[in-house]
Input
Amino acid sequence: MRNDTTAEMAAVAARLVVDEGLEYAAAKRRAARQLGLPGRAPWPDNDVLEAAVREHIAIFCADTQSDELRALRELALVWMERLAAFRPHLCGAVWHGTATRHSDIYIQMYCDDPKAAEWALIDLRVEYHPGSTSDAMGDPVEALTLRVRSPALDQWALIHLLVLDHDALRGALKPDAQGRRPRGSAEDLRRLLQAASGDAGVPA
Output
């Protein structure tokens, strides 16, 4: 029963991630509500949900997702190059290869002075909205959100610039539980874009 419930919840949450661009935690919460599950119901972990997301993409979005992913990666690279002084690293669905046109772009920036990123955006005459989000450990992180146009997708996209301390960069490059790189630099992203690959562009 536990495995059946977890799998059902993962499938519903995966649809919300792919079709509506929800982040994993929000997708799990909404999936639990839609399924009428009690608070102690077994929730899928992120690895299970990611597998369900990839399965959903393969079944329902195979003919469009790769082009949408490339468009978001190209847009991310533009902004990583503009903000190169802050050692930007792409993370989230756009880095891991599970993004669709509904996904937001998450770029981590490692700053000696957290206010310097805002000054840079002001110098670029870019409108942004300050706020916060949670990092992988659930701790709050300052975020600067931009709303930018994607010509390739012919729509607006949200870019969240996560402002982190410069000293956090070394630990951020450690492999995740699956041995994958959880984020990548602009050069890493260029290599992904240039690589001739038949899959969804999953980083090594």
